[in-house]
Amino acid sequence: MKIILVVLLTLLTLQALAKFVAWFTVPYSSRIKRMATYYDKKHRFITVYDTVTLGLGIVIVLLAFLTGVEYLSFISGFIVGMICIQVFFHRFIHVLPEDKTPQMPTPPVKLLSYAIQAQPGLAWREIAFISILSVWSLYMLIARGLF
After folding, report:
1. pTM of this prediction?
2. What is the pLDDT along the chain (147 residues), one digit of tens a residue?
3. Whole-angstrom Cα distance, residue 61 to residue 74?
């Protein structure tokens, strides 16, 4: 069970780091074009992605409990994760210029996604904090989890 948990966590940690790298290395025009397809009603990518991701979250929690989780560490990570996401979203308070605003009407999540793509640097503190924790997590998963 532990090795499955370690592998899943390693893959998701790498995905998180790749997302941050992409925000600062892939041109806005490429990122926004790809993201716009995610919200296309014909494709429903976001719905499927969210369902799979939530399922993975449930599997990770079950595996953590099966391998012996320390409740204070689990709750601390849970609370810090929620805080990071909330503060991250709060960074995107600026009105988007017309050329970076999705066509109206648009759901709030799509507008927020466009705002994040337009200026991911607004959340540089949160991205730095999450990246530092992700690098440490990756190190620990490889150093202690796999060997």
Report:
1. 0.78
2. 889 999 999 999 999 999 999 989 999 999 999 888 888 777 788 888 889 999 999 999 999 999 998 989 999 999 999 999 999 999 999 999 999 999 889 889 889 999 999 999 999 999 999 999 999 999 999 998 877
3. 9
